[in-house]
């Protein structure tokens, strides 16, 4: 902007172009006239003094803007500044964070492009998922304030450590801590003692029953040897996937008869029996059919005093086991609510925040309960198309120790896995890394479009997000422990079962990711995603068929949703081919669909949800194809 234009602005209420003396003539208090030299804009005084003249006489006609036009112009300028600021922040973040895109190119090429909301959010998503394989960041000082606040409350209330309530940073813990420190300093200087808290404030709790311990006199447990058989079935078919319980501790407490004295542990034992009865060949379980286990489950009410007392380990185990049992029934919709309650009870005592790295049996059991609740929350939310109770950035906790149960209480080397011996818990840690990707998938692909508007994402978001999720999924697959890689001839039965479950979860998630692009079959991305989904479904169908033939009549229910999704994709592929190919042409996908149905049918007699899935297929277009194929031989 030139100096003439600057002084020609609307200063002192004058319109641009109004005649006014230059600065030199105004200081000398002389008349200011334009020079007679052609083409010169200087006055005679400035020419003689050889100074730059600010004389301005060219009139400028300008239409006065309305108030609405001014506001619209300012809003447009503000939006442009926000977009540019977001791009600048993303560029700065990308320059300081070395990452690799899904295509293998460096982010440097992206820095040179004009970044919008789509590009920026893709980069944030990529770096967030990359943190799955990096070491955990050290905790911030503010994140540990709740521990100091807990110590203060322990001194005041004289309660046990596990009875404290977790207080987050938004509750002003830092301010309370600073206030307490200053108050302590003041009282120390004056020599006075801090007044004891009033009992009607610190000791008040909602009124509950006088006897808050769950009644055990009316409970009916399985008698020996059935009880030992059910406990063995639970740890053989369920705990190898979701390691909620520590077998030596559990069996020792049962042998000591704790379930006859403690209501919390009694509920855990009853639910273990309820879950295990689905694999039992005891006549009572066989006769009950899909209702097996209800005689144990119905003895434990869902709601007692858990909401009014501090959550215990047995309370958290109760919600884990109750959800696992109900997920196999016709009342699976209750699981989503119950797992949310369990996670909030866990957060109430601060289980979602990292504690001391020094291991103990109790701490590890609490940690197991939290991780199992988190896993169930995402799986059930994905099944029901609902929002998870806890997101990836809501917790900060160490993964489970990859130490088998028998090595926890070693007399000289506790919590140390023998060198060269793979741990059975490694499966769950790998499964949880896959579960984290599932959580990202639910957020980035199956959340409402309000998230896109919030981050000003304009463009083909799903078409851009699916390759990113697929890339991190392939990275996860490359990091599968060696003893859990697919090997149909693997001799160790536990590792074989875990390997099948891990790969079924991988194929199920791959289908879930690419399923988001299957709405518009005319698009090229939809055809590519359908091919990927079909390949994943075929691999899953072959794998579970080999697993079924090897295990006989012992189903692995953890694979049920993956099997069902694979069958749906294979049926979709069959009907897609029916559009162009002849109906008489044999289709190998139909054989794989039958493999999936055989696995579902294997669970039908004991798991009600498997019966529902079988019924859905029985009275679907699948049945029509089967009849058609049988008719034409």
From TrEMBL:
InterPro entries: AtrR-like (IPR050987), XnlR_reg_dom (IPR007219), Zn2-C6_fun-type_DNA-bd_sf (IPR036864), Zn2Cys6_DnaBD (IPR001138). Residues 21-55 form the Zn(2)-C6 fungal-type domain. The keyword Metal-binding applies. GO terms for molecular function: DNA binding; DNA-binding transcription factor activity, RNA polymerase II-specific; zinc ion binding. Transmembrane segments: none annotated. PROSITE patterns: ZN2_CY6_FUNGAL_1, ZN2_CY6_FUNGAL_2. One of its GO terms (biological process) is DNA-templated transcription. SUPFAM superfamilies: Zn2/Cys6 DNA-binding domain (SSF57701). Keywords: Coiled coil, Metal-binding, Nucleus. It comes from the Eukaryota. Residues 1-21 are annotated as: Disordered. The keyword Transit peptide does not apply. Residues 61-88 form a coiled coil. This is Fungal-specific transcription factor domain-containing protein. It comes from Mycena albidolilacea.
């Amino acid at each position: 902007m030139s100096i003439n234009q600057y002084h020609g602005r609307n200063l002192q209420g004058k319109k641009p172009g109004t005649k006014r003396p230059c600065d030199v003539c105004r200081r000398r208090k002389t008349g200011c006239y334009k020079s007679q030299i052609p083409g010169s804009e200087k006055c005679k005084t400035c020419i003689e003094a050889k100074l730059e003249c600010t004389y301005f006489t060219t009139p400028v006609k300008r239409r006065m803007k309305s108030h609405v036009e001014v506001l619209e112009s300012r809003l447009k300028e503000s939006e442009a500044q926000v977009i540019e600021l977001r791009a600048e922040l993303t560029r700065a973040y990308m320059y300081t964070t070395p990452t690799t895109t899904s295509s293998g190119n460096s982010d440097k090429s992206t820095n040179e492009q004009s970044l919008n909301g789509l590009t920026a959010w893709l980069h944030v998503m990529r770096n967030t998922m990359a943190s799955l394989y990096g070491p955990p960041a050290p905790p911030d000082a503010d994140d540990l304030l709740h521990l100091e606040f807990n110590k203060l409350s322990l001194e005041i209330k004289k309660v046990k450590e596990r009875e404290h309530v977790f207080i987050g940073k938004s509750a002003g813990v830092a301010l309370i801590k600073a206030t307490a420190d200053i108050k302590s300093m003041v009282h120390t200087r004056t020599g006075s003692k801090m007044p004891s808290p009033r009992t009607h404030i610190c000791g008040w709790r909602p009124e509950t029953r006088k006897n808050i311990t769950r009644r055990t006199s009316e409970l009916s447990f399985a008698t020996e040897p059935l009880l030992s058989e059910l406990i063995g079935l639970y740890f053989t078919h369920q705990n190898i996937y979701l390691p909620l319980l520590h077998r030596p501790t559990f069996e020792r407490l049962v042998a000591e008869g704790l379930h006859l004295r403690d209501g919390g542990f009694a509920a855990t034992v009853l639910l273990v029996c309820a879950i295990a009865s689905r694999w039992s060949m005891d006549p009572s379980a066989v006769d009950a059919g899909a209702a097996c286990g209800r005689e144990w489950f119905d003895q434990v009410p869902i709601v007692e005093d858990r909401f009014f007392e501090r959550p215990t380990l047995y309370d958290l185990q109760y919600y884990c086991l109750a959800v696992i049992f109900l997920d196999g029934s016709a009342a699976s919709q209750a699981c989503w609510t119950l797992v949310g309650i369990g996670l909030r009870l866990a957060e109430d005592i601060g289980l979602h925040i990292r504690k001391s790295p020094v291991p103990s049996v109790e701490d590890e059991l609490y940690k197991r309960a939290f991780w199992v609740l988190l896993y169930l929350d995402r799986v059930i939310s994905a099944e029901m198309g609902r929002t998870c109770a806890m997101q990836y950035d809501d917790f900060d906790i160490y993964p489970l120790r990859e130490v088998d149960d028998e090595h926890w209480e070693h007399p000289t080397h506790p919590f140390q896995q023998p060198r060269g011996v793979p741990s059975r818990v490694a499966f769950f840690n790998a499964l949880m890394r896959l579960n984290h990707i599932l959580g990202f998938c639910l957020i980035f692909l199956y959340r409402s479009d309000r998230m896109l508007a919030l981050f000003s994402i304009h463009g083909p978001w799903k078409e851009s997000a699916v390759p990113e999720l697929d890339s991190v999924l392939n990275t996860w697959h490359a990091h599968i422990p060696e003893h859990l890689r697919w090997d149909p001839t693997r001799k160790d039965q536990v590792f074989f079962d875990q390997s099948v479950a891990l790969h079924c979860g991988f194929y199920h998630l791959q289908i879930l990711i690419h399923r988001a692009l299957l709405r518009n079959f005319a698009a090229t991305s939809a055809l590519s995603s359908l091919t990927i989904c079909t390949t994943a479904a075929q691999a899953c169908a072959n794998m579970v068929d080999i697993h079924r033939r090897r295990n006989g009549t012992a189903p692995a229910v953890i694979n049920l949703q993956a099997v069902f999704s694979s069958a749906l994709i294979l049926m979709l592929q069959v009907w897609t081919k029916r559009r162009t190919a002849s109906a008489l042409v044999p289709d190998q996908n139909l054989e794989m669909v039958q493999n999936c149905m055989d696995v579902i049918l294997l669970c039908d007699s004991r798991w009600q949800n498997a019966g529902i899935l079988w019924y859905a297929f029985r009275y679907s277009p699948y049945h029509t194809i089967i009849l058609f194929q049988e008719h034409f031989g």
